[in-house]
Write a structure and sequence with these properties.
One of its GO terms (biological process) is protein deubiquitination. One of its GO terms (molecular function) is cysteine-type deubiquitinase activity. Keywords: Coiled coil. By secondary structure, the protein is of the alpha+beta class. It has 20 helices and 17 strands. Helix 1 crosses helix 2, helix 8 runs parallel beside helix 20 and helix 13 packs antiparallel against helix 14. The longest helix has 41 residues. The relative contact order is 0.11.
């Protein structure tokens, strides 16, 4: 106020006034500085700017200008106001009144004396036991951030720093493209938008059933032609057969070529792969569409256009037949599906593949009495799962002020489909009913334990132990024999009660563990373990856009391999099954390929490529993998070529390939490093 009494300056205002005075060379009037500082709500920076502009603060007529850190009553208030008391407040109790206890009165009077707080550096020697973190340790995150929030922060930082323009095709020198031993070959498209499709083709090669089926396939010839008399077959140039032929050539090179990478631009054109160009779209959607088209083409070509299948018998390589459990197994009552969609995040209690399938295909009939069970009538050799993550963020917990921690979705290295099959419907139902009862019994025991250890939101056992501690360490006997006996009896009673409670809790824990273990293993019986499927490939998205942000895991010759663009590295199985990549961006592993379990010898056996290669026309050796390997070795430096062995080269054969297909020229021929679009000139 301009005319009223000015409230004294606070310690902070005194410090700010000294700063302003120093800014003006020590000639600033104290009252002037205080008035100016309060005019700008104690904002030192604004007050300094106003001072330099010649403002003396005298035009401030606000009625509350002389009161520090206060605002007019009609201004907006952040947070709830304190309501007026609903009843008259009681008078302040005079704790210093003499009530006969002089010692207590003096203590209370001393505690109520005005003592000013003094802040100063501690004079005590530093004690490392009280340190929050070691003095030489780097602080990695702000205080109060959970691990989930830290990971989310790093993911957002990575997404903001990513530049789409930097996603270019990097071409390696020929000497760096040498395949080492049995390392898987990487498939690389020039366009990053079809990287997902290249990873699908890459993963399918490592499914033994697919690799062998494609290797044995040859296009059907004219009616009445005996496949034993055929010595030459011209590659198809269009239609579904051309796509399967392209896959066969690609797979043969992945198995036998000595280059560490293959360009698959021609394959992408043959399969008409759509480009994933929008970072806002999920790559899983484009992946599923490409996989479904590919599976349909391959399965129908093997049935209707195969030299070795003149009877056109159906082979369920990819498609499973499913329907209601009480339906007839015919075309009218069942459907075919090659990719199973699995929703993640809708139920926090269901966070693994088998539980998710059970929740969808085998719901609890007590909760859904009118629901019809879906069952699998015929299982394929290969089954894929599309993991779709819930885009809705986890619920906010108001009690702790942050979201619940995310957890990685679990998928096993082997899964049994028997519990979802039509043939095992009755047995699986009985097992599940028993399983649910066991889990309910365990839940009841856990509730019993909670009631035993807690009462009115208090820890009963802790209270009993506190009482025991009192009688053991605090209670005084005053040399009174009766008091001594009383303390002894109470100690014995409390000890017996505590021991009994602990024993009861331990018994309950043991019973709960046994019930849960029995429930988790009740479906693991020989009758429900006839259809075993092993994990073959996993495709992962880390949440960002670009070729290096999609990668795969594949199993080859008993080892797991990770492929990121052209980089192929061996990884442990635990990394494959527990990859947390993309967890905090709602991404991660999104496509799983399983196939029927096989022996290790069958998995590692080489596919019969020679039956397909040797019937190709006998004029041009350029199309054979062996010739391409030979030409590749001639183009690398001699000192490097002599160190390379070619264990995968097929044996010499009088039958060699004829006119190369577009795919063979572009992706299998050895091109010079300057271009991957033009075929290499192999003429003399």
């Amino acid at each position: 106020m301009g005319t009223g009494r000015v409230a004294p300056a606070t310690p902070q205002e005194v410090a700010d006034i000294e700063t302003l005075s120093g800014l003006m060379g020590g000639s600033l009037d104290y009252a002037h500085a205080l008035r100016l500082l309060r005019k700008h709500n104690n904002n030192l920076e604004k007050a300094a700017s106003a001072l330099l502009e010649g403002d003396n603060g005298e035009n401030d007529s606000g009625p509350f200008a002389d009161l520090p850190a206060m605002e007019p009553l009609d201004t907006a208030t952040i947070g709830p106001r304190t309501p007026p008391p609903s009843r008259p407040e009681k008078a302040v109790i005079d704790l210093t009144k003499d009530d006969g206890d002089d010692e207590l009165a003096r203590a209370l009077k001393a505690s109520l004396e005005d003592q000013s707080t003094s802040f100063a550096p501690s004079t005590r020697a530093p004690d490392p036991n009280w340190a929050m973190v070691p003095s030489n340790a780097a602080i990695s995150a702000p205080t109060g951030m959970s691990q989930d929030e830290q990971a989310m922060s790093r993911a957002i930082e990575a997404s903001l720093s990513y530049n789409i323009g930097e996603d270019i095709f990097e071409e390696l020198p020929l000497e760096e493209r040498i395949r080492k031993d049995h390392t898987p070959v990487a498939l690389r498209p020039t366009s990053s938008g079809v990287t997902y499709a290249a990873l699908i083709l890459h993963g399918l090669f490592f499914v033994p059933q697919v690799r062998n089926a494609v290797a044995r396939w040859l296009p059907a010839q004219g009616a009445g032609t005996d496949d034993d008399t055929i010595s030459e077959i011209s590659p198809p140039t269009s239609g579904p057969a051309y796509q399967v032929w392209t896959m066969m050539e690609l797979f043969a090179n992945m198995d036998l070529a000595r280059m560490s990478e293959l360009n698959v631009d021609a394959s992408m054109n043959a399969f008409v792969a759509e480009s994933w160009d929008n970072p806002a779209d999920r790559p899983g959607d484009a992946t599923v569409r490409f996989y479904e088209r590919l599976a349909y083409v391959v399965e129908n070509t093997l049935q209707y256009n195969s030299l070795h299948n003149p009877q056109r018998q159906q082979h369920r390589l990819f498609s499973l037949q499913y329907g209601h459990h009480d339906a007839e197994p015919d075309r009218l009552n069942t459907d075919n599906l090659c990719c199973v969609k699995v929703n993640i995040g809708l139920n926090s209690d269901v966070n693994d593949l088998v539980s998710s399938l059970a929740a969808e295909l085998a719901p609890d009939l007590s909760k859904f009495p009118n629901s019809k069970r879906q069952v699998i009538f015929e299982a394929p050799d290969v089954i894929s799962f599309h993991l779709v993550r819930d885009l809705v963020p986890p619920a906010y917990d108001a009690t702790v002020g942050r979201r619940a921690e995310r957890a990685t979705f679990k998928y096993p290295k082997s899964v049994y489909l028997d519990q979802f099959m039509k043939e095992s419907f009755e047995l699986a139902n009985e097992k599940r009913a028993t399983q649910r009862q066991l889990l309910q019994d365990a839940k009841d025991l856990e509730a019993k334990k909670k009631n035993l250890l807690h009462f009115n939101d208090k820890d009963t056992l802790a209270d009993l132990q506190s009482c025991l501690y009192y009688y053991e360490s605090v209670a005084e006997t005053n040399d009174d024999p009766a008091r001594v006996e009383e303390i002894r009896e109470n100690k014995e009673k409390l000890t017996r009660i505590i021991d009994k409670v602990k024993e009861e809790a331990k018994t309950i824990d043991s019973a709960v563990e046994r019930l849960k273990s029995e429930a988790n293993s009740i479906l693991d019986c020989p009758e429900l373990q006839k259809h075993q499927y092993d994990l073959r490939a996993v495709i992962v998205h880390d949440g960002l856009f670009g070729r290096s942000h999609l990668y795969s895991y594949v199993k080859y010759k008993g080892k797991w391999w990770k492929t990121v663009d052209y980089v192929v590295t061996e990884v442990p199985e635990d990394t494959v099954l527990n990859d947390p990549t993309g967890l905090h961006l709602g991404t991660g592993p999104y496509f799983l390929l399983y196939s029927r379990a096989m022996s290790e010898e069958e998995e590692d056996a080489r596919a019969p490529w020679y039956d397909s290669i040797k019937v190709c026309s006998p004029e041009r050796p350029q199309d054979t993998v062996k010739y391409n390997n030979h030409m590749f070795f001639q183009q690398i430096p001699p000192e490097i070529a002599v160190q390379v062995t070619d264990p995968n080269s097929p044996p010499s054969s009088p039958y060699v390939a004829t006119t190369p297909s577009e795919h063979t020229i572009e992706s299998d021929g050895v091109e010079p490093p300057s271009s991957r679009d033009e075929p290499m000139d192999l003429s003399d």
